[in-house]
């Protein structure tokens, strides 16, 4: 099997890597996350100008028509640069739901605005009691003419404070945890009854809790009662992207730790000369390569719609959680006390790995899903 990138993918990779090297060092990233919404609007416009915001969208929407591998290439480089801009929230989640829900006028208009960088979006799916279950939805939607009214609360909405529009999961039929009976609705964050409480996450990026008090003029996205399947498909796309970001972070942590071991002196010599530490850094490298192999497998499976795509993705997410803990812990320990200071980038990379592990289910949760799915496929 050929694992070489195509010419277009190599160009995308080089473009992102060059931007991070020239305009997105750790000091600049620190300044960006300290801004109002946790990212730099100027950087976001640069993403638009370079065409990165168009990559996953079909050509019918004015996009590049990229595959899972194309997104993997971008996200891996984003991971190396610890990029805080809401690519996953706006482009992959919000934009992905729009693109997969149909080809109506509203989809054309909003996706065009995402691509040109003028629209920020978010996906409000998580609720306080739902933990990792997408189907656990208490928010309700009631018909009001040809639109709907929403009532409920959503928590940990990525990019919720900066979003101009949100897609919200709400129950239109069935019991609280039923997969059927969930519908998706588009709302404006400035609409009456919408209350946004923003806060920073441990990795510096921002999220928000959204309160919906009889919010009117909500537009149905996709089919009534059939939102769960659409949600799961788009969440899988985003999960793969986050795993690619994590792989980039792991590679960066390993490289940074090796470089540090060549400079830090103890007992009259650089610590990289100690065989015990060399073995630990080799373990970091090997573990990262295992993640890379699974990432390639999952991306290829997704690109060809393999029957094993979900199984490969769950295996990858489990491995990211396990290996992320290993590499992050080793990077901090081998850097000593400096590894946990805000002044050094290492701790910030590790915090981001921890956030990726818990997004869409941690390693333990996804391992249980993997076992269940494996039994069903066998």
Q: Sheet with the most strands?
A: 7 strands, mixed
CATH superfamily of the largest domain: Butyryl-CoA Dehydrogenase, subunit A, domain 3
Write down the CATH topology of the largest domain. Butyryl-CoA Dehydrogenase, subunit A, domain 3
Distance between the termini: 25 Å
Shape: globular
The tally of beta strands, per DSSP, is 9
Strand content: 15-25%
Q: What is the domain total for the residues?
A: 3
Q: Count of DSSP helices? A: 11
- Which stretches are low in confidence, meaning pLDDT under 50 for 5 or more residues running? none
Mean pLDDT: 94
Word description of this protein:
46% of the residues are buried. This protein has helices at 7-23, 26-33, 41-49, 68-81, 87-100, 105-115, 227-263, 275-303, 309-335, 345-358, 363-377, and strands spanning 121-124, 140-144, 147-158, 165-171, 182-188, 194-200, 206-221, 265-266, 269-270. Strands 1, 2, 3, 4, 5, 6 and 7 form a 7-stranded mixed β-sheet that branches. Strands 8-9 form a two-stranded antiparallel ribbon. The chain is globular and about 80 Å long. It folds into 3 domains: 7-115, Acyl-CoA dehydrogenase/oxidase, N-terminal domain (Butyryl-Coa Dehydrogenase, subunit A, domain 1, Orthogonal Bundle), CATH 1.10.540; 121-225, Beta Barrel (Butyryl-CoA Dehydrogenase, subunit A, domain 2); 229-377, Butyryl-CoA Dehydrogenase, subunit A, domain 3 (Up-down Bundle), CATH 1.20.140. The protein is built from 11 helices and 9 strands. 52% of the residues lie in helices and 16% in strands.
